[in-house]
From TrEMBL:
Its main location: membrane. It is found in: Cell membrane. The gene is prsW. This is Protease PrsW. It comes from Paenibacillus validus. Pfam families: PrsW-protease. It is an enzyme of class 3 (hydrolase). GO terms for biological process: proteolysis. GO terms for cellular component: plasma membrane. Its EC number is 3.4.-.-. The chain crosses the membrane at residues 6-23, 35-53, 65-88, 100-122, 134-153, 165-184, 190-208. It is a multi-pass membrane protein. InterPro entries: Peptidase_PrsW_arch/bac, PrsW. Belongs to the protease PrsW family.
Length: 230
């Protein structure tokens, strides 16, 4: 593959998934500039996370369970959570529950996209390998972003249990990211039998969260009231 073709193949899955979840915002799509801003922050996260992960490997070793949960999942999901909470959570543009999903997915896919590009160029990946990464790591990051964003939305717009949902916005992606990585580690020769059911479950769960977040939009209620008046 040429360098340009390799770059396009590495970037395309993240852009496509971000577009998909952006267009799922049924009532008040977010400013594209803000979505791209969060995507860019996700890209920038790759470098400090890589340094931290290298340090953790040296200190904790590379046992599959330790690497999956403490070295890989913990720093990646924590820094994504940190960015969403401190950059956008209290912003006025975050004005309905589904916005949490859009912004968290943007951060997650920014991270996944640069990670995919680095893997492609450092490991001389071909198109087939990049296609597999689109279905697994890149898609997985999107699913973890949906979980995180859904609970950020619940935290901001629920009248109670705010702290609980803020905690779940971190702990659920952390847990499932760890499960994802650990499954790949321990089933290298027969991973397809485990990853297909896991990814199917994560996708169905994410689509349900998307539907629920849209259903809780105050803008949906306003639209319904306007129709009743008409």
């Amino acid at each position: 593959m040429s360098i340009l073709s390799l770059l396009i193949a590495a970037v395309a899955p993240g852009v496509a998934l971000l577009s998909y979840f952006y267009l799922k915002d049924r009532y008040d799509p977010e400013p594209i500039s803000f979505v791209l801003k969060l995507f860019f922050f996700g890209v920038l996260l790759v470098f400090p996370v890589m340094v931290l992960q290298r340090t953790l490997v040296q200190g904790l070793g590379d046992h599959p369970f330790v690497f999956s949960f403490l070295t890989s999942s913990l720093p990646e999901e924590f820094f994504k959570w940190f960015i969403v909470y401190f950059i956008i959570y209290k912003h006025t543009n975050f004005d309905e529950p589904y916005d949490g999903i859009v912004y968290a997915v943007a951060v997650s896919l920014g991270f996944a996209t640069l990670e995919n590009v680095l893997y492609a160029f450092l490991n001389d990946y071909d198109f087939t390998a990049l296609l597999m990464r689109a279905f697994l790591p890149v898609s997985g990051h999107a699913m973890f972003g949906v979980m995180m964003g859904y609970h950020f939305g619940r935290a901001k717009f629920s009248s109670d249990r705010t702290s609980r949902h803020l905690a779940m916005a971190f702990w659920l992606p952390f847990f499932w990211h760890g499960v994802f990585d650990y499954t790949l580690f321990v089933s290298k020769n027969y991973w397809v039998w485990f990853m297909i059911p896991l990814m199917t479950f994560l996708w169905l769960r994410s689509l349900l969260k998307v539907k629920r977040a849209n259903a809780k939009s105050p803008l949906r209620m306003a639209t319904r009231e306007e129709r009743v008046k008409i």
